[in-house]
Amino acid sequence: MTASTEAARGAGRRAVEPAARFRDLLASEWLKLWSLRSTYGSMALIAVSAMLFSVRAALADHHNWPGYSAERQAAFDPIHDAFPEEGWLFVILAAGAVGAVAIAGEYASGQIRTTFAAVPARSAVAAAKVLVLATVMLVVGVLTAGVSFGLSQAILADRGAGASLGDPGALRAVVASALLLPVCALIGLGFGALLRHTAPAIVATTGLLLLLPLAFDLENRWTAAIHNALPVPAWERLVANPYIQFNEHLATVPGSWVALAAWPVVATLVAALVVHRREP
């Protein structure tokens, strides 16, 4: 074997190694995520609360439908029953907690030091963690939103009041609800990386997602604009939640998509920067 052939083979092995190492990182982050007992509890809470509350809302309207006036029946929006806010509050809380625990728990236990000792490339570790978390939560979001929509509309169809994905706003609501889970999880991840302790990270995530939107005056143009740029109000606009009628300065649909997309990007950048710059 010539020296040039051996050199070429060595270069080829070196070119393949980084991809193999990243696959190992993905596998490691997958195992870490599912080794947490809280992951299973959060996933169960997401599925049960979303589906249970959507079925509950649809059954209530199904039962009361004969007593609705003609005007109310004509104005009825079945999509509201698929994604009732009271059920999705639990979904938002659980999804944010999954992201916060995924990294804050690793810092709290000291496992992150072992990870960085084995893999000095911290940016690769952060990228693998973000990719695994976002993918898992997206799959859960698609299943949860799709089943919630299907169950609620099947119940309402018996009254001739159900919607299909082809109806105006239906597909948008399902897609926005599916994306809401990875959005909340990545925001939780950002706070977890920043605060490094599970309880403060969950509190901060909950504050941003559920409490901060309540602090703004919707009659004022500027405070309403800040409110509209928050992730949960953006989702409420996209699913046409009934509460948006109280907003005198309603956001546009494109603006709400931008807000929903910007938050996980910012959270991911914060997590990557903190992981790269600060010592564990």
TrEMBL record:
Source organism superkingdom: Bacteria
Listed transmembrane segments: 40-59, 88-109, 130-151, 171-191, 198-216, 257-275
The keyword Metal-binding belongs to this UniProt entry's keyword annotation: no
Keywords: Membrane, Transmembrane, Transmembrane helix
Keyword Transmembrane: yes
Record protein name field: ABC transporter permease
Organism whose genome encodes this protein: Micromonospora antibiotica
Species classification: Bacteria, Bacillati, Actinomycetota, Actinomycetes, Micromonosporales
